[in-house]
Amino acid sequence: MAGPSIILAITFVWLSPYSTSARWTFTGLILVFIWGGVAALRHRARFPLQTLANLVAAMREGDFSTRARTSGRDAMGELAAEINALAAHLRGQRLDSMEAAALLRAVMAEIDVAVFAFDPQQRLILINRAGEKVLGRASEHALSRSASELGLSECLEGESSRILSRAFPGGGDRWSVRRGAFRQGGFQNQLLVLTDLSRALREEERQAWRRLLRVLGHELNNSLAPIKSIAASLEDLIAREPKAKDWQDDLASGVSVISSRTAALTRFMEEYSKLAKLPAPHFQNVSLAPLIERLVNLERRVSIRVQPGPPITLNADPDQLEQLLINLLRNATDAVLEIRSGKTEAPSPEEVKLGWNVRSGTVEITVADQGSGLADTANLFVPFFTTKPGGTGIGLVLSRQIAEAHGGSLVLENRKERTGCIARLRLPLR
Fold first, then answer.
1. How many Å is the Cα radius of gyration of the chain?
2. Sign of the C-alpha dihedral, residues 310, 316, 319, 325?
3. pLDDT tens digits in sequence order for the chain, 430 residues long
4. How are beta strands 174-184 and 284-287 bridged, if at all?
5. Which phi and psi angles does 355 have, rounded to 5°?
6. What is the C-alpha to C-alpha distance for residues 362 and 8, in angstroms, rounded to an integer?
7. CA dist 234 to 126, 215, 250, 402, Å?
8. In the chain, at which end, N or C, are there fewer CB atoms within 10 A of the end residue's CB?
9. DSSP-derived secondary structure letter, 398
10. Residue 16, Cβ neighbours under 10 Å: how many?
11. Angle at 159 between CA 155 and CA 161, to 5 degrees
12. C-alpha closest to that of 161 among 195, 198, 135
């Protein structure tokens, strides 16, 4: 609309009866007014655009605190409001990112695990406080150095998760090595995590020695104390004058007690030796159903009900597997006989049940009894702990060792649907 109006005004001026000089004067005034209006409009449009450009430049530089003043509800005002909202959103995201980074730095500094990050050229780009301790040098002397210079090149090779025997300046000689990858700036970097196992292993070893010495000391004292007492009494008996008429009977009785306690101590040491020297399994193909049928026929004290599962061939040591199942069946039978001794009714045909099934790549063999259940589940697998008269306390420990040597597990728990105990032996299907 502005163009035709200007042409019409100039045409009207030149068609008027004024002189030529007047016409040029009016034409010049029209053009001056037009130029002034255009300049004013240009300035009015340029100022808010320049303001928005400055705001976007500040956001690009990371300054999200600047805001544009909005006035009116025209298109320019709506654009300024949207850019202000974007700046506020980006500022909130940057604050969240800074807080998360601060938390990560605090965690990295406090954890007792050495963390290293290497760029594609295997140069160190990140290290935490534990890593500085392992290398025996501060971060400013470690960053940008190659893995070979730091003595970590071996950790960046081989399997991504393994146990490494290696001494570092900061101590420790046995480490858990875990390695992963992450991308930064379009390049693939490596993350290395080292966990010192030496301290934990030494503490476990000390605990194991304490438990062993406590058990051995208990058993030795139980046998040696009466032997010492009876030996002293027999020494007095022999030295006494005149001797009593029945001194020979007392002597024989004391020697018999010493002999029985010595035999018990010998059996204890033999059982301990058996527990400590379990050989590695010799794997071969073992058909499960015939093996279980043979073992069930060996136990004649109670009737054992077999609930057969699918035909299965295991890769196992048949002798050790038989010993494991014999222990479980004997425990179940002993539990049934113990509770049966107080009953007058006829025994149940399902006092002991044995079955197996396949679940998630493993075979689960269960032995369930109708005994009194487990009173102390915490000490089930403590060596030499037993609640049975004359028991050695190594049957379940030996059974679990056999299961774990086969890559499986053994769990005992009380039955939920009735009284009694159920043993669950899980072995992998190879």
1. 45
2. negative
3. 555 666 666 666 566 666 666 666 766 666 666 666 665 566 565 667 777 777 778 777 777 777 777 666 667 777 777 777 888 888 888 888 778 777 777 777 778 888 999 998 999 988 888 888 888 888 888 888 998 888 888 888 888 888 888 888 877 778 888 998 888 878 888 999 988 887 777 776 677 667 666 766 766 776 677 778 788 887 887 877 777 777 777 778 878 877 877 776 776 677 666 656 667 888 999 999 988 888 887 777 788 888 888 998 899 988 888 888 888 888 888 888 887 665 544 455 557 899 999 887 889 999 998 887 776 655 555 555 555 555 445 667 778 888 888 888 888 888 887 788 888 999 988 6
4. unpaired
5. -155, 175
6. 97
7. 76, 29, 8, 45
8. N
9. H
10. 11
11. 80
12. 195
Determine the Cα angle at 391 with ends 389 and 394, to 5°: 155
Instruction: Give, in order, the Cα–Cα distances in Å from 340 to each of 158, 302, 347, 348, 362.
Output: 59, 10, 7, 10, 34
Model pLDDT, residue 346: 45
Place of tokens 């222990």: 327
Rounded CA separation 161/177 (Å): 6
What are the backbone angles phi and psi of residue 211, rounded to the nearest 5°?
A: -65, -45
Q: Angle, nearest 10°, between helix axes 395-405 and 318-340? A: 150
Tokens coding 216: 């051995």
**306 bridge partner residues:** 354
d(CA 369, CA 350): 8
Tell me the two tokens of residue 176: 């858990």
C-alpha span between 117 and 124 (Å, rounded) = 6
Q: Closest Cα to residue 72, out of 63, 64, 81?
A: 81
Distance CA(96)–CA(29), nearest Å, equals: 61
82 CA to centre of own chain? 47
> Rounded to whole angstroms, how far apart are CA atoms 58 and 86?
12
